[in-house]
Amino acid sequence: MLRIARLKRELEMLSTEPPPGVTCWQTEDNMNELRAQIVGGSETPYEGGIFLLEIKIPERYPLEPPNIHFITPIYHPNIDNCGRICHDALKLPPKGAWKPSLNISTVLTSIQLLMAEPNPDDPLMADISSEFKYNKQLFLEKARNGPLSMQVTTRVPWKTKTRLKIGNLLLARGRLSVHIIQKKLQRKHACR
Question: Which residues form the UBC core domain (predicted)?
């Protein structure tokens, strides 16, 4: 009961007072699965990009951190090709920094900050980390062009109540072709 009450409160807070550049919503009537979008920060290689994330809430939340991964492809030293994120706030101690006092809003804000300030000393992608450290211009070019060059048209089946908000676009019902939802949806099951 405490978990559901807390999730309702957090979702209410995210809908009324979202952090800048972050939105989050539940999928259908299931509070265990959420979606979020992070707008790429200004003066970063991801500026102007809209990045879709999947959030799975564990049964023991808030004692355990949410499981968050990127659906939209992103070229980043702390995010792998399957969208998994290497971030202390998503891991339990002693290796991680998750605390029950953190919430989904703070974690999404910290992921947005990680996008702007990669941590090459704790990489998930060693080759990208090396590029970030030793050839930053090449990294910036690949990060800027990566998500755009990986875009594909994806057929996404939605049930009637499902809504997907991307930027100012709200998609609902039926089967729609969407250019903004990228290749990651096709590889989603291969990474699990």
Answer: 2-152
